[in-house]
Amino acid sequence: MIKEKINTTLTFEDFKTEVLSDYKIATISRECSLLGRKEVLTGKAKFGIFGDGKEVPQLAMAKAFKNGDFRSGYYRDQTFMMAIGELTMQEFFAGLYGHTDIVQEPMSAGRQMGGHFATHSLNEDGSWKDLTKQKNSSADISPTAAQMPRLLGLAQASKIYRQVSGIANAANFSVDGNEIAWGTIGNASTSEGLFFETINAAGVLQVPIVMSVWDDEYGISVHARHQTTKESISEILKGYQRESNTNGFEILKVKGWDYADLVATYEKAATIAREKHIPVLIHVNELTQPQGHSSSGSHERYKDSNRLAWEKDFDCLRQMKLWMIAINIASPEEIEAIDLQAKKDVFEAKKAAWNAFIEPIVEEQKELVSLLQKTAETSKNKERILKLITDLNSIKSPLKKEILVTARKVLRLVMNETGKEELSLWITSYTNKTQQTFSSNLFSETDLNVFSVEKVLPEYSENAKEDTDGRMILRDNFDAIFTKYPETLIFGEDAGNIGDVNQGLEGMQEKYGELRVADVGIREATIIGQGIGMALRGLRPIAEIQYLDYLLYAIQIMSDDLATLRYRTVGKQKAPLIIRTRGHRLEGIWHSGSPMGMIINAIRGIHVLVPRNMTQAAGFYNSLLECDEPALVIECLNGYRLKEKMPLNYGEFKTPIGVIETLKEGTDITLVSYGSTLRLVQQAAKELLEVGIDCEIIDLQSLLPFDVNQDVVKSIAKTNRLLVIDEDVPGGASAYILQQIIEQQDAYNYLDSKPQTLAAKAHRPAYGTDGDYFSKPSTEDIFEKVYGMMNEVNPVKYPSLY
What we know:
Blueprint: H1 12-41, H2 55-64, E1 70-72, H3 78-83, H4 89-97, E2 136-137, H5 148-163, E3 181-186, H6 193-205, E4 209-214, E5 218-219, E6 222-223, H7 233-236, E7 250-255, H8 259-276, E8 280-285, H9 305-313, H10 316-326, H11 332-377, H12 382-393, H13 400-413, H14 420-439, E9 468-469, H15 470-484, E10 488-492, H16 508-512, E11 517-519, H17 524-536, E12 540-544, H18 555-562, H19 565-568, E13 578-583, H20 596-602, E14 607-609, H21 614-624, E15 631-636, E16 643-644, E17 661-664, E18 669-673, H22 677-689, E19 695-699, E20 702-704, H23 711-719, E21 722-725, H24 733-744, E22 756-758, H25 769-773, H26 779-793
Parallel strand pairs: 1-2, 1-3, 3-4, 4-8, 7-8, 10-11, 10-12, 12-13, 13-15, 14-15, 18-19, 18-21, 21-22
Antiparallel strand pairs: 5-6, 9-16, 14-20, 17-19
Helix pairs in contact: 1-4, 1-10, 1-11, 2-8, 4-11, 5-6, 5-17, 11-12, 11-13, 11-14, 12-13, 13-14, 15-21, 17-18, 20-24, 22-26
């Protein structure tokens, strides 16, 4: 346990120096906000959302924030980031301008708007830094309250590191689990369900969170009386207050303009959370928002004169000045000197950031102008090209877009001339170079990506029989995983005590304990959040969503947070979370959905794996644990009791990711599918063979990534026909699959018939076996669809069925 260190030698001069240093940071932050808004209004920046009015409580939070701690906050925390030394004035403005250089703008290299903060957890090669030696911030996102679910996991990691032994490289991620996860949120955003879901889960789990609610009484223009019962989040959360022999929160309330009380409150909260792993909520009220919500409008539109006058009087910087004067920290003249110096420093930083942003683009502008002038000299469209050059030259602060637009317009004018080649090469080079700054790192670009894992086949004994339930293969493979990787843990609804609803984790909790194989409440969004947060801190969590249909509760967090994490940090953070679920081919509206089109389009940045049996699924888990990327594994819901061979090399065999498997070779038509539907396809192919139609069957195995070796088109080159069979709605995943095959693999070159799809009905399946049969593709549907395609080819050989 940590023992609080008390500095008994602090003199008044030391205290004065510390307070003045804090005030300087707060004043600099305020000046950044004020000047930042002007930069938006003058057009240099596109949009601005700032932390003015929240400076003083963030100073107090920063004082209690230690190395190894993690922040999961929102876009008004600039003062905090400055106070912990992770944001400079120049970096603040680089973010405002959207500078695409990660050195100049280390938060996201211009991929997120200013005010979205992150620290770098990874080295250049993608390996982990020692996170205990630095102050950490998980990468912010804009959706309101969406920072809450990952906060839960960041805090839970401390509990795991404190109580689970044998974790590899634990010293790089934790010192005895003493780290706090610090959350911040605006008062209006506490109305979101994600906030309440996280608060409830943190109270149950008893993890070291300090949650700050910045309360300025408004959510954009909407007053708290329309947002929160009793107009106070701390009042309505009183039921969460921890009492003797209960779990829950410690709830503290403090005025946002009272520097001394804020410092004391945050010190108290940190001690409670760090030592005892009790979550704390700090309701910081009586805050102001001097410039309104954002640069999009003025708060004078919705605040009356009394409120505006109060905000002027109780601005936290003004109150801090009055307090410093009252206790002789500084004179009015000294404070004014600090204020003036802050203005100068911020202005110079703004100027330096703008120059660093614009000068390289101006050089590119000059480079193109020189090339275009050369091109114009020999062109029959010289005058039109010179006009475009003049227009481009007139732009004092050009955008890369404006440079490229000009180049591409000139290219059209010289498409039949000798000057074309050099300009074409320039455009291609410039586009590729620039595009990379906006498109890299959607997936891992390190040596730990999914393609680095080599296939390892399951090994079987000579007399192995197909008499093992699929769920037992999963169970025994998870057993091997938990032994091999002490940092691996799994959690979900019914995952612990009963070993999941399909018994794929039977006996695992008894063997590995309640922390590593855990039951959780019915709260899908924070199940994913737990996984994201723990993965951000070096653990290898497997988050279980009980059914594929329930993924919809968590899709926003998967889409906005997990799928974008590596991209929005330009590869400086990673969360290799594995999400386990099960779906397809059960009965009823809510347990048989197959929303694959929605999923694959919402979570680009997460791999989507669709094994047809449990041996494949187990191999995917083994592969993923050697990678540094997140993935969703969808097990076949009707496959747990189906019989498979029992492998000998549990934990070692690996299913390749992004590689198809040809289940049956054929000559007449290529049938492409995945998951449970393949069993129907295989049965239909047997029946089609009886009438002389020889089908080739391809199991995609994964949808993201899709057939990286382009093997599907090789099959089509042989059969010249294609049918995609899918359980999703018409135009769902089948549309994506067709786009990949026809457009990306150029399969249209080999098709002699129209490529077709066979999907489920547009509605969800009604309850019961008949509901399934009349809602999703059946063996008969597949047979007749293929037969109909062959009838079109040769109606004599294959006479019409109907």
